[in-house]
Model the fold of this input.
Amino acid sequence: MGWFSTGNSQAAPPPPEPSQDGGFIAPDRSARAVCWEGRDNFFKCLDRNGIVDSVKEDEKARQACAPELAQFEKACASSWVTYFKKRRVMEYQRDQTLKKLSAEGATPMDSSTAGGAGAAAPRREEGIMFKKSTPPPPEMSGQKTPTADTTSPTSSTAGSRSSTPNPGGNTKDAEKLPDGKTPDDSSKMRTFLSILKRFIGVTDIAAVRFSLPAQLLEPIPNLEYWHYLDRPETFVAIGDSEDALGRMLGCLRFWFTKDLKYVHGKPCKPYNSTLGEFFRCQWQVEDIAGSLRGEESKPNLQQTVAAPEGGTTKNKPVKVSYLTEQTSHHPPVSAYYVDCPDKGISACGYDQLSAKFTGTSVKVTPGHYNQGIFVTVHRRDNEEYQLTHPAAFLGGFLRGNLYVSVADTCFITCAKNGIKVILHYLEEGYFGKTQNKVEGVVYKCDVEKDKTTRIKDVSDKDVLGRIDGCWIDKVWFSYGPTEFKKVPEKDKVLLIDVNPLRPIGKITPPMDEQLRNESQKFWNGVTESIGAKRFNDATNRKQELEERQRERAAERKAQQKEWQPRFFTQVTEQNGKPQLTPEGKQVIDQLHQDKWHLEEPTEYGAI
Done:
C-alpha cells in the first residue's frame, strides 16, 4: 500500500519553462548533478538555520547561507531555483500534514487503495490521501519474506539445495507478535522510513553503526544474498568464443544476468555480516557453450540461457564454487572468490557499499575498496576483464513500493584484447517514471591509456558495435558504428532476454557440516524466529550476536591485536583483487569435490 496519492499534485508548483539566463533546464547528466548538488547544499544550510520558506525569508536566507545560495543560483537556471524553493515548502507542509493526520490515527494510502465497494471516502490534504485505520484486504495483508526452499540432504556429503530468495513472494499469515501485532508491508515501510529520515545529510549510511529490528529484515544472511551469480551458466560461458569480441559479448551477457534478484523480486534488507563470518556454496549448471558471432550466433539467446534451475540436459554439468568472507567490519567489507576449473574461469572482488539517503531515495555507490568484478579466463592466456559497478537508487519509499533504478555510467575492459565497453544507464524521468534503459558502445582502444567516459566521445572508426535496450527486459547488440536507432531490425542481435530467467538455487553444506561462524548456521536462530513471526525473540537473538562481536572487538583492542581473515590473505587489497590463503584454496578445492568438512577456526570474530 502506497503512501501518497499520485492523482493530486495541486500543491506542487509547475515545472519551469526553458530559460536563457545561463542556467539549464534539460542538461546532460553531469550538468544536472552540479545543479542538484548546489540545491542540496543550500537546503542543508537552510535546515541548519531553521529556515523553511527561503522565498518569504529571502533576506534571512541570503545572510545565513550566502555561499551556498550563490553556488545554487550559479549552477541552476533561475526558473529552477524558484521551482525548487517552492517545492521545498510544499514538501515540508505535506510532511507536517502527514504527521498531524497520523497522530489522529489515519493511515496513509494511495489512489489504488482508496476506492472499492463500500469504501469510506478518503480525506485529502495537500496531495495526501488518508483514511481511518481499517483491516487491510486479504491480498494486502501477507508478510513479504523470501522463499526458503531447502531440502534436507540424505547424506552428510550431499549438500542442501536452496533457492535464491524472492523477496517479492507472499507467505501465509502466521502467528502474531507477542504484543499482538503482525507488521504488514505498509507498517514496515513507515518504520523503515522513519529510521532513514534520521540519516538525511549523513555522507555514508553504510558506515554508521545502527541496528534494525528483526521485523524489518528478510531472513537471509547478507553473504548468502549478495553475490553476482544469479545465472552462473552465463559466467562460465564468457570464455567460450574463439574470438575476442565474442568473449566480450559473453561478458556482457553475464553482466545483465548477475542481478536478476532485483529484476524479478523486490529489494530487501538481509542481516548485516559480522567479522569473520563466511559463506560457501556450489552451483551445478548446464554448459551453454556458444559464440555470438556469425549466423550461428544469432538465435534468440533466451533459449540458451533459460536452462532448468540447477539442472542439465545432455551436456555434462559444470560446477561453480563460491567462497566469501567478511574481512572487515568498520568499514563493512567482504571478499569473494568464484572458481570453475571445468571451464578455466574464475572471478574475485570486494563487496563494499556507500549509501546516502536523500529524503526520497537511497543512493548506493561502490565503496573505496570495491573496484568491480575481476574475471580471469585462464584458458585464454589469462585474459582479465574488469567490470565496474554503477550507482543505483533504491526508491519508492513515498509510495510504499520499493524498486531499484540505475542512473550512471560503468565500464567493462579487457586490456589484453584492447576492448572496452561503456554502458550508460539513463536517468528516470523528472517525475519519477522509471525507464530502466541502457545504451552502450564496444570499441577498440589502448585500455591502459584510454580515458573516454562518454559514448559520444568514442570515434566511429574504433567502434565494434553498439548496445541498446532495457536491462530488466531485452538488451540488443548491433555490429559496427551505425547509431543503433538507424540499424535495420534484421541486423540487431538479441544479446539477452531476462524475462524468462530466474535466479538459480545454490547447493550449500548441510547444517550439521557448517561451522559456527558460517552464515546460515550463525544466523539460524534469528531466521527461525522470524519465520515463526516471533519478532521480539528474533531481535533479542540478533542483538546478542551483535553484542558478542563488540566484545570480541574490545578484547582484540585491549590486546593490540589486528583481525586476520582466515580464507583471504588481507583485510583489503589496494588493487581490489583479494587473494586466497592456503585454507581458502582448500575450501574451493573441496567444493569442487563435494566435500564440506572444515576444521574450526582458531579465533572467532563474533562468537
About this structure: The two ends are 40 Å apart (CA to CA). Residues 59 and 436 are 42 Å apart (CA to CA).
